[in-house]
Amino acid sequence: MNPYFRSAKSATIAALLQHERLSRSELAEITGVSPASITEVSQNLLQQGLLVELPLPQTGNRRGRPSVQLRLQASHSYFVGISISEIATPMVITDLQGHILARKTIPFCKTPSELTAGIRNNFATILRDAAIPRSRVQGVGITVAGIVDSELGVCRYSAALNWRDVPISEMIGKALKLPAWVDNVRATCRSQNMRPLRKRDARPRGVSSTREHRCEPASPKRRRSAWHWRSLPGPHQQSGVHPFH
User: How many domains does the chain have?
Assistant: First the structure.
């Protein structure tokens, strides 16, 4: 696939995740992609079933082609989101729009192997809770509180977890038999317009802790999964060919 087309495709999906529904002209303005490329990308995504068109009701005596907005088809694909911290590991299933459909919390695990086993053991349960067939799950997005090499899918160092050079993306990907991507908490929060949520935010006044362990929406209007974006196409892809490419 043409690299420019792939980039335009990723930018289109990212914009629709943030704004939910947009016209083609709005997409071109927000992403900086040419209108012609937006038309080509949107047609490709419509053919794949990733987008739906939403005609807007005409007002007044306006003639001509009615305005149309585009929206991600939520039920097209599903993703696993995992946020690894020193407290516990939330595990969620999201739809293509990033809405959380089911959630499990895995207690703190002392080793990466123990954590991976816990994730594998809870996968079937969370799929059942979300009423999602396994075949519809396209990938796993992972966040870790620590220094992460997202290109290689490795947690280089996490003081909170006592990890060094842990290939966590490969471990979880193999356990769930899915493509997996990993990044640190700060990077994921930035991509989702979120702020890091620290332990001190949930503690009584006078008890301090500054370690980050998960994200919360910066605005009530953006209640999407903090992990979902890392499962979408982009330079952070680790293994296999992403179904959106």
Answer: 2
Q: What is the CATH number of the domain that holds 57?
A: 1.10.10.10
Domain hosting residue 62, numbered range: 3-72
Q: Is residue 240 part of a domain?
A: no
Phi-psi region of 206 (alpha: psi -120 to 50; beta: other; left: phi over 0): left
pLDDT digits (tens, 9 = 90+) for 99-148: 999 999 999 999 999 999 999 999 999 999 999 999 999 999 999 989 99
> Is residue 242 within 8 Å of 233, Cβ to Cβ?
yes
Binned average pLDDT, 10 residues per bin, the chain of 245 residues: 81 91 94 94 94 79 73 94 94 93 95 97 96 94 93 95 96 97 69 41 32 40 43 39 41
Is residue 166 included in any domain, yes or no? yes
Whether the CB-CB separation of 168 and 112 falls below 8 Å is answered with: yes
Cα 96 to Cα 110: distance, rounded to the nearest angstrom: 32
Same domain flag for 160 and 219: yes
Last residue of a domain, one of 29, 44, 72: 72
CA distances from 137 to 1, 89, 194, 209 (A): 23, 19, 25, 36
